[in-house]
Amino acid sequence: MPLDHYVTLGRSGLRVSPLCLGAMTFGEDLGWGTSVEESQQIIDRYLELGGNFIDTANFYTASHSEKIIGDHIGRHPDRRDRTVIATKFSGNLYPGDPNGGGSGRKSVIKACENSLRRLQTDYIDLYWLHLWDKDTPIEETMAALDDLVRAGKVRYLGVSDTPAWKIAEANMIARFRGWSAFVGLQIEYSLLERTVEQELVPMASEFGLGITPWSPLKSGVLSGKYTRDNVGQHQGDRGALVDAFLNEQTYALIDELELIAKAHETSVAAVALAWVQAQPAVSSVIIGARRLSQLDDNLRAADVSLDADELARLNELTTPTFGFPSNMLEMAPGIINGGTTVNGVSAPVSEYVMPTGARPY
């Protein structure tokens, strides 16, 4: 799916590219990342190919990421209006200030004002709650965010890295009170991180939240850089985050990704990204790139469409095992439907269902 074949973000009218440009690495202020010049080149390449969705946060590279985007896009009205800019709040940039971060009204409003200044724009297209702040009532956060929407400073709201039950509570409160609700969900999701399929993905599907997965290559583990043939030859940029996943199960997955990539004449990374894009409720996959060459490689995923057999082969290698209540609910169709076919799904008669001819007392 090319970058200019836009999709709506969840149950909203916001049109975004199927691959989102993640800007976490823009700026070298923390001793790593991408120079200003190359960051601008990455933005230009993405936009030239039809991409329109850029994701950052007030916390990324000590706020330099936002400023780079502001200098290159925000100050140019013709480019700004054609771009969907998403940023986040929650991160505290002011050591010693308890209200410098979090989701309280004071922090949320100030963070928004500062992001607008750095982005050099008068509105944020998509404003994400970055991390759940358990010390702030969700009613306070949602009310403050609704005020920002009504003031025209924010267009849409999203939530990241928050429990499913808290997101459901937040959106129900917002809808009952006539406030703006979350339309997007940002979560870690990849072939090596599928635990989100127990609660968060079904919740997003049920409530119409468009998922924008981060780390779809699991910190580079599925980039194609690491294989059986070069074990120990590459030092992961993220150290322990990579080494912890370089095991037999991962190498078996990489072997399968290589076979599928060869069939499609593409890269391992492109296949891994295409798998994430094919998952239920996923609207736009966030791809990061520290180098222009990495962006070009990841963008190859837009041309990959996996068939049912390929998806099944990858699923078989990575499907996680969930505990209660998922293990109990797996038996539900047989118990509830008594061996009949409902909505196209046939289930065997459960051992708990009475034999044919038996009658309840």
From TrEMBL:
Which cellular component terms (GO) are annotated to the entry?
Answer: cytosol
Keywords assigned by UniProt? Answer: Oxidoreductase
A molecular function (GO) held by this record is: oxidoreductase activity
Q: Where, if anywhere, are coiled coils annotated?
A: none
Q: Where is the NADP-dependent oxidoreductase domain?
A: 18-317
InterPro entries reported for this sequence: AKR (IPR020471), AKR_Detox_Biosynth (IPR050523), NAD(P)_OxRdtase_dom_sf (IPR036812), NADP_OxRdtase_dom (IPR023210)
The reply on keyword Oxidoreductase is yes
Could you tell me what this protein is called?
A: Aldo/keto reductase
Species of provenance: Mycobacterium asiaticum
**Lineage of the species this protein comes from:** Bacteria, Bacillati, Actinomycetota, Actinomycetes, Mycobacteriales
